[in-house]
Amino acid sequence: MSERKPPLGAPKVEVIRRPGAAPTPSVVPRPVPSPAAGSSRPPPAPRPHGGPPRGPPKRFASAPRGPTTAEGIAALAKKERVPARIAKGDLEGKMRAHVWRKLHPEEAKRFTLAYELMEKMPNLDLADAFGIIQSGRSPEEFLARKARGQVKTAIKEARGTVPREEIDRWVKKLIDDKAEVAVVQAERTLLDVLSSEGPVAFTLERTGRVEKLQVVLLARRATWDRMAAGLERDPKLAKKPQGVPREPEKRPVADPRPFIPHSGKPVHVELRNGISFTLPLRAVGPFDVLVGPPGDEVFVPLHAMLRWRAEEAG
């Protein structure tokens, strides 16, 4: 039987024979070659303190491409059809824009459509273009809804900045005096006594609750009797008054602030049931105005107006 050779690199085993004893193997370690033995490559030098970190560079890192100005970011975002944050990162040496597009194909597609829409409608900004794509509406419908939302916000802010104390005092005096009032609605006039006022309705002693949106004007009965005969009336609106939209942003007059500079001056008011008149402006509230001389004031809700204009004092 042939003798098996040990595997390459295994320690060499030498058998030591002693007289009168069984042979005992002895393990003789093979010398380890020095780092330079059989190779011309020098050993790695130790990394100095504070040197660059070991390991491969970041996956998407690149050298900065230039100063990140707002104009540069916008130009690159438009060119690459990407969000501004991605264009900014690209300019700063982070993820390149084309890499982001490959990693996020669905979002990249939406931004491509948005930029194409901006090219067709130069007055459109990216936020609106992206909103149109996301909503699925036509540009005209989207912009109309946005405009109504902006008007609604402006009206809400206006109502919060205009005080109503003067008009509240006038209404409270009517209640305290138990004065008979004329509540003019679109097609009829109620003669009753005002007993209370709530946020959205008046309460009359005999008639009961009357929603404020149904009121065109309110005045003491004596005041109304004096002015009713001399009022101008539009026959078409008198026959078919214009309705009041529930949404303030859809009404012809809803913001009280334009009235404020004309306090004390005559204003011409046209109401939705065809009545129109010119009287001095006494007070402006969040939802209503008072017009007329002292003692003969007329309460007019903004929702009852179709249009108004300031008149030159004569």
Low-confidence stretches: none
Percent in helix:
25-40%
Query: Any idea what the CATH architecture of the domain at 165-310 is?
Result: Roll
Structural class: alpha+beta
Give me the strand/helix succession. Answer: EEHHHHHHHEEEEEHEHEEEEE
- N-C termini distance: 138 Å
Mean pLDDT: 83
Strand-residue proportion: 15-25%
> What's the number of extended β-strand segments?
13
Q: Which geometry do the CA atoms define?
A: elongated
At CATH level 3, the topology of the domain at 165-310 is SH3 type barrels
Labels describing this entry:
elongated; 23% strand; 314 residues; 32% helix; alpha+beta; eleven-stranded antiparallel sheet; two-stranded antiparallel ribbon; SH3 type barrels
Topology record:
Blueprint: E1 12-16, E2 24-28, H1 70-80, H2 84-91, H3 97-103, H4 105-120, H5 126-135, H6 139-161, H7 165-177, E3 180-185, E4 189-197, E5 201-204, E6 208-211, E7 215-220, H8 221-228, E8 232-233, H9 235-239, E9 266-271, E10 275-284, E11 288-291, E12 298-301, E13 305-310
Helix pairs in contact: 1-2, 3-4, 4-5
